[in-house]
Structures are given as C-alpha cells and as structure tokens.
C-alpha cells in the first residue's frame, strides 16, 4: 500500500465544492491553493467532491453526485429523514459515498492518504470504511462557528458537537490553520491531541506591480467582503459606516457578499436582510453611499481591493481567514476583528489594525484612523504584503503539509494496523 520510503504516493482531498473560483467556500480555496502547489512540486493530489461545477477540471477527480445509489443507501436515506438532523444514519450515508468515491478514485490513481474537514463528524465513519489514514483539518469546529452564528445550544447543537469531538479524538492526524483554534478544540473537548500540528492556510503571493497603491485607490472608499450574517459581521460594518460617514460625509462603502436567505437575527429578535438593515440603520443622506455588490467571483473582487482606501474584516469568528490573507497579500490597508486566528495573521499596528470583537464603535475608530492617516495606511499595507509573502507562501505551507503527511504514514506503518477498521 505504501512505497519503499514510506512517502505519500498521492493525497486525496474531500472538498465541499470544486473547482475554486466557481464555488465560494474557504475550504475549496484552501484545497485549490495547496493542490496547485503540489502539482508544481511534482506531488500528486486528487479531489473528491459531491458539488462539482460542470466545467473542465484539469486534475483527476471524483464526482460523488454521479455515483449510483444502491438499495442499502436508499433505505438508510429514507430512515434518516425520519430522525433529527445530522443523525448517525445521515452521517453513515455521507461516509459511504465518500468512501466509495475514494476507493474508485484510488483504484485508478493510487492514493495512500485522505484529508477531510471535521465538519459534522462524518470523517469518523469514513475512517472505518477505508484502509488508509485520514488527516482531519480543523476548518471551523461547530462549537466556535455555531456560537458565532448565535445558534441555540439545543439537542441539535450538542449532537453535532459530539459527532465532531468523536471524529477529532479518533483521528490519526489533526492539522489546524491557527494555534487559537487548536487550543480551543483541546479545551472544549478535553483532548490532548498530541499528534496535532498548526499549519497555516497558504495564499498566492501578489507581484509588487499588481499590489495596492495609494495613487490607485479611491478617496475614502471602504471595502467589506463577506456574507451578511452574524459570523462575518456584516451588521457591524453597516453600523460602523454610519459613524464613519458622520465624520467623513464623502465616504463610500462597497459591500461584497451574499445576503443569506434566512436573514440576520439581531439581539431584539428581529430578522433583517441587508437592504432593510441599511434602510433602518443608516441615515437617509448616507444610504446612497453604500454600494451592495452581492456575491462576486475572486477575479471580480481584485480591482475592488486596489480601489479601496481601507479593507475591513468584521467577523465575530474566524479560524484562519482566507479573505484576510488575500487582503493583506494585496497590500491593502486593513482593519480586522481581534478574533480566532486573525491576530496570528495580522500583526496589530505593524501590518494592519485590529478592533475589539463585536464592537462597531471600535471598528469605526480604526477605519477613521486609517482614513485620516493615509501615510500610515500605505506603510501598513506595504509591510503586510511583504510579511504575508514571507510567512504564508504556498510553497512553504505545502512543504510543511507534505512533511506532516509523511509523519502520519510512518506512524501508521509502525503500528502495522488501521485501528479504525471494523
């Protein structure tokens, strides 16, 4: 099953969508960045997904949506519909599809390791169904992301949290983009995770000639990229803009990101959509200063980054924000919330400014500081681009990741058994 040097032959990634650029998801972007560098380094990686766009995909992949469903799967699916959400039968059904897809893919393109996210705890069952080790990647543990979304701590919450704990505790290997999230998982689940390691998300390096410049930016224009929901803090950005506009009436806000279907529930219990929230929270004379762009693709956001005087990340929770990495790599003067992995990416007052979490007044103060100090803004942006290129280059992250895969394979071979098989 393994080569003579106990090295990875190839790794398969389970991705919630594919290809990058056509599916708006941080995990998809992470897998895309990493797999692209693996290919340049001569290392093989393949994609397994149940949400592939009907586009040409260069590397071999497995579309789970095209796999036939057998009688057993149909029966499990029907029974699971009668049970609460995210029940074990629904997890088993998803695991069966992933395991089957991996086996078919591996028969054509031999893989001796699979990487999956921790979400829903599906990986616990997948590991029981395949004969290769699985590395669990902590993209967004439920106890953190669910809390940021304001979900109630009901049976559904605890059932999902338990499933993720079970998967993480039994994992052969665990990687986390940030130390903050790894520490939080250890504390929440009371797990030592001695085999876990922090490996940051990679981000493409932007050439100097394409980066943000003050001369190319538009006067007092603010860019926000993120969903209008509690997690991404779109409401905080709107509330902050009211204060910013009172200080600088010529200010403009470009809001890029989808308005979630269910709306955003504020503390009073009222549910808002973005346009309604702007109408109720922004003074009439400033409402036309907000341009709602909706969901855009990566190449459509790039010129907006160069045009903005300040870019904002207002999240109430972030594991290791790819959007923040991208803003800093472009050299954009950036303000971000001091939550999760953000302070591990943005060094306060060296590569950007951090504001107090869940505090729109603090956010407004930091944005105003950069708007009234253009020299400081430019210096922070330039330093940020250089810092990101040094610490989070795709080549560096790919090497760290591949070395960890080798370690996991060596440990598995020494044990000479798969402890997760039935």
**Fourth CATH level, the homologous superfamily of the largest domain:** Glycogen Phosphorylase B
Output the CATH topology of the largest domain: Rossmann fold
Which structural class fits the helix and strand makeup?
A: alpha/beta
Please tally the helical runs, counting DSSP H or I stretches of 4 or more residues: 16
Low-confidence stretches: 1-5, 417-422
Sheet with the most strands: spatial strand order: 3-2-1-4-5-6-7
Looking at the structure, what is the overall shape?
A: globular
Tell me the total number of β-strands: 15
Mean pLDDT: 90
The percentage helix is 40-55%
- Mind describing the biggest β-sheet? 7 strands, parallel
N- and C-termini, Cα separation: 19 Å
| Overall number of domains | 2
Judging by the overall fold, what is the CATH architecture of the largest domain? 3-Layer(aba) Sandwich
Can you tell me the CATH class of the largest domain?
Alpha Beta
Nearest-angstrom radius of gyration? 22 Å
Strand proportion, as a percent range, falls in 5-15%
Descriptive report:
The protein has about 425 residues and is of the alpha/beta class. It has 2 domains: about 10-200 and about 395-415, Glycogen Phosphorylase B (Rossmann fold), CATH 3.40.50; about 210-390, Rossmann fold. It has 16 helices and 15 strands. The protein has helices spanning about 25-40, 70-80, 90-110, 125-130, 140-150, 155-170, 180-190, 235-245, 275-280, 285, 300-305, 320-330, 340-345, 360-370, 375-390, 395-415; strands spanning about 10-15, 45-50, 60-65, 115, 135, 175, 195-200, 220-225, 250-255, 265, 270, 290-295, 310-315, 335, 355. Helix 4 (about 125-130) links the parallel strand 4 and strand 5 (about 135). Residues about 1-5 and about 415-420 have low confidence and may be disordered.
């Amino acid at each position: 099953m393994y080569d003579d040097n106990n090295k990875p032959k190839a790794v398969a990634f389970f991705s919630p969508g594919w290809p990058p650029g056509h599916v708006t998801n941080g995990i998809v972007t992470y897998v895309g960045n990493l797999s692209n560098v693996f290919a340049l380094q001569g290392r093989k990686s393949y994609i397994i997904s149940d949400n592939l766009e009907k586009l040409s995909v260069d590397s071999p992949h497995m579309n789970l949506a095209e796999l036939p469903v057998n009688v057993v799967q149909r029966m499990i699916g029907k029974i699971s519909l009668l049970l609460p959400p995210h029940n074990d039968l629904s997890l088993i059904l998803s695991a069966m599809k992933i395991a089957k897809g991996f086996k078919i893919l591996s028969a054509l393109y031999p893989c001796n390791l699979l990487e999956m996210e921790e979400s829903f705890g599906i990986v616990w069952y997948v590991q029981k169904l395949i004969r290769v080790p699985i590395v669990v990647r902590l993209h967004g543990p439920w106890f953190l992301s669910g809390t940021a979304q304001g979900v109630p701590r009901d049976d559904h919450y605890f059932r999902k949290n338990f499933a993720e704990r079970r998967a993480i505790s039994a994992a052969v290997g665990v990687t986390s983009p940030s130390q903050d999230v790894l520490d939080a998982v250890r504390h929440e689940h009371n797990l030592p995770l001695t085999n876990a390691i922090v490996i940051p998300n990679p981000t493409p390096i932007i050439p100097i000639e394409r980066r943000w410049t003050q001369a190319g930016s538009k006067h007092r224009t603010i860019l926000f990229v993120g969903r209008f929901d509690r997690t991404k803090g779109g409401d905080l950005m709107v509330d902050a803009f009211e204060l910013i506009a009172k200080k600088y009436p010529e200010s403009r806000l470009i809001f890029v990101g989808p308005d979630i279907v269910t709306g955003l529930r504020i503390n009073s219990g009222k549910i808002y959509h973005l346009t309604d929230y702007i109408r109720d929270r922004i003074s009439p004379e400033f409402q036309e200063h907000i341009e709602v762009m909706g969901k855009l693709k990566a190449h459509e956001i790039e010129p907006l980054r160069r045009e903005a005087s300040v870019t904002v990340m207002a999240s109430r929770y972030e594991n290791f924000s790819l959007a923040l990495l991208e803003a800093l790599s472009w050299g954009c003067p950036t303000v971000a919330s001091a939550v999760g992995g953000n302070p591990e990416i943005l060094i306060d007052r060296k590569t950007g400014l951090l504001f107090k979490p869940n505090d729109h007044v603090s956010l407004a103060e930091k944005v105003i500081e950069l708007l009234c100090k253009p020299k400081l803004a430019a210096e922070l942006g330039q330093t940020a681009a250089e810092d990101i290129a040094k610490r989070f280059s795709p080549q560096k992250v790919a090497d760290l990741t591949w070395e960890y895969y080798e370690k996991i394979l060596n440990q598995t071979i020494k044990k000479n058994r798969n402890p997760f098989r039935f």
